[in-house]
Design a protein that fits this description.
7-stranded mixed beta sheet, 4-stranded parallel beta sheet, 13 helices, 16% strand, binds 6-O-phosphono-beta-D-fructofuranose, alpha/beta, elongated
Length: 359
């Protein structure tokens, strides 16, 4: 019998179950005798032997279900080499579970940090296959991660809903979209939702330029302005600070501004005199059912992951490039972020449409 371990790690997203279903369906077809072991709550389950023997029926009816049937947790990569509360070596614990269960391969559904750990385990001699999850679409080496399109639809819908109320009241509205380090979600939901201003971490903004854009719209009779702001958007001033200085500043301001959007809102009111409101869809963006695009992507990635296991092509991340499912070595993607290049054609096209980035 062939035994395959599977876990979901890091922040959840809509298409985790669809991806696991894809892997399982193909595995059950490829092997005559295969058992799937599902680890609970990500790497924690692998460390502490917290697992379930999955049955084919566990993967039925989950294509459209959000979240993850296995549960997940954040286990930061930098803490993987720090002993646990009982002084035990986490990497050794994971290796022991893998060996004890006589796994043929471990399938890791996760984003950046999780794939870094997957690479570490691969370098430690385990057979590992990674699958690219995250609503941020910031995993290096793949054109698309599963979860992104579903989250984008939700963020776009939030902007759509805000549009009508913003227009009715003649207000400035800030919609804060998820993404601390990377702005793909804000950029694309912003374009899809017809935002007038898009602020992302990769393009530090000048608040004067943002205020000018609002005033310009007002002058030509446009009563409202929609500003899509990424969680990690940063002003030019703050971007010029050292990490330590910025941390101190954020710490001092946290009781005044719960997040960057509130700071921008306060400044917009002050600088333009126009009533400004903030909407934060937050974790809604990671919830609910996967969109059709994600279901297809997840099913394709999952099927190919199973094939790669069958062909013993371990140590790889399954990716999509130019609409083809392929693979890249985990060590090539580990630790690299796919950020928005300020010169990316999508940014340029957005600027041609008149969208302001505050740069
Ligand atoms: O990485 C996915 C993500 O949703 C980011 O967009 C967001 O910044 C972060 O996770 C939120 O993390 P948590 O769920 O731990 O609050």
């Amino acid at each position: 019998m062939v035994r395959i371990g599977m876990l979901t790690s890091g922040g959840d997203c809509q298409s985790l179950n669809a991806t696991m279903r894809g892997v399982a369906k193909a595995l059950y077809r490829l092997y005559d005798d295969v058992q799937i072991i599902g680890f609970e709550d990500g790497y924690k389950g692998l460390m502490y032997s917290d697992y379930r023997i999955m049955e084919p029926r566990d993967f039925s009816g989950i294509l459209t279900e959000g979240g993850t049937i296995l549960g997940t947790s954040r286990q930061p990569f930098k803490l993987m080499t720090v002993p646990d509360e009982n002084g035990l070596d986490k990497v050794e614990l994971m290796k022991q579970t893998y060996k004890k269960l006589k796994l043929q391969c471990l399938v890791v559904l996760g984003g950046n940090g999780s794939q870094k750990t997957a690479n570490l385990l691969s370098e430690e001699g385990l057979n590992v296959i990674g699958l690219p999850k995250t609503i941020d679409n910031d995993l290096w080496g793949t054109d698309m991660t599963f979860g992104f399109q579903s989250a984008m639809n939700i963020a776009t819908n939030a902007i759509d809903c805000i549009h009508t109320t913003a227009a009715s009241h003649g207000r400035v509205f800030i919609i804060e979209v998820m993404g601390h380090k990377v702005g793909w979600l804000t950029l694309q939901a912003g374009i899809a939702g017809g935002a007038d201003v898009i602020l992302i971490p990769e393009i530090p903004y000048d608040i004067e330029k943002v205020a000018e854009a609002v005033k310009r719209r007002n002058k030509v009779g446009k009563r409202f302005t929609i500003i899509a702001v990424a969680e990690g958007a940063i002003s030019k001033e703050d971007a010029a600070l050292s990490k330590k200085e910025l941390k101190k500043k954020k710490e001092q301001e946290k009781n005044i501004y719960p997040s960057i959007s509130y700071e921008i809102a306060a400044k917009m009111e002050e600088m333009t005199g126009i009533e400004t409101r903030v909407t934060v869809p937050g974790h809604m963006q990671r919830g609910g059912e996967p969109c059709a695009y994600d279901r297809v992507l997840s099913s394709r990635l999952g099927a190919r992951a199973a094939q790669m296991i069958y062909n013993e092509e371990y140590g790889n991340l399954v990716v999509i490039r130019n609409n083809e499912i392929t693979k890249i070595p985990l060590k090539e993607t580990a630790g690299k972020l796919k950020t928005v290049d300020p010169k990316d054609s999508m940014v340029e096209e957005a600027k041609l449409l008149g969208i302001t980035f505050g740069d």
